[in-house]
Structure formats: structure tokens, C-alpha cells
Amino acid sequence: MKKTMVLLVVTLTLALGAAAQTRIDFSDLPLIGIPTLIPNGYSALNWSNIYYVDPSLWPGAGSGYKDGPIQANLRAEDVAFVGGKACRQLQEACYGTISALGGPTSFQAVSATVAGGFGPTYVLVFAYHNGKYVGSVSYPLSTQMHTINFPSSWGSITQLTFQTGAGGDLVFYDLQVYLLGG
Q1: What is 21-180's CATH topology?
Q2: Which of 4, 85, 100, 149 has its CA 20 to 30 A from that of 156?
Q3: Whole-structure pTM value
């Protein structure tokens, strides 16, 4: 009985540790002045059509890009974004996706610190689990950095898709997730 109880406690401890909340920021990426795709595998997730850049080095950054955090050592940080010049010029929506393929088998989205890159806009967020639609939500954005919270009812998902408003940019300063094993 004691061995069974010890095994149960160890298993639960490992399961809880595997689901620790992770803050994903972009400070581990090189500080660059040209928007560059976030590499797949960054923070154990895959990234599609999501770019990163140091807004202090990029002359094309809008005011929403420049509201980002400065670390305690006063070092600049990159931000991530969905959108870009083509979206603005064509006044079309742009898409970016974060998925668990190649990383954990699933994750739970908690929150993100975001802004609109060049002015007021909105973002639609779609959640999927193994290709099956789970839910969606729309958030208004301004150029001021603020936190959006994802619905906890989404639970374990394998993909988040972000759709910007026509001509708008979505800027990420960080993302909070639980990386799950199943």
C-alpha cells in the first residue's frame, strides 16, 4: 500500500511539474532590425507567419511596437507580430499560427500581452485541438500594451490562429501557456 501511495504521489508531482505555466517572451532571440520569422521550435512550439524584431532598430515599427517592456538590466527586447506592410497596403487580414507540432503534444493558452502595431484594430483568435475547432474570441486592440486572457474553457489545444483586422498588426510582448504532455 505504501509503495502504491508513493508511486501515486511521484506520478502526480511529475504531472503537475510538466504543466507548469510558461512565460514566452522574445528576449532569447537576436536583437535585429529586420522583421524575421520566429523559428519553429522556439519555446517548444511551432510558429507560422509570426515575425520578430527589435522595434528600436526597425524604422518601420509603429507606435504599438515601441511600448514594450525593458528588462531589469535596461536591455531592449524583441517583440513578435502578425501583419506587416503588405497587410496594411492591401487592407487585408493577416494570419499567424502557434502550434504544438514538434513541441509538446498540446498546450493551454492562458494570456498574452499585446498591442495594435499602428493604431486601433482587433484580433480574432481561433483555438483547435488536433484540427477540430474548439472556440474563438475577438479582442479590440489599441497601440497601448495590455493583457488579453484566453478562455479557460478551451482547455488543452494544439493550435492557436490569430487573424488581424483588415490592415492591422498584432504585436506580442509575451505569451503565457501551460505546455502539456497529452
Answers
A1: Jelly Rolls (2.60.120)
A2: 4
A3: 0.83
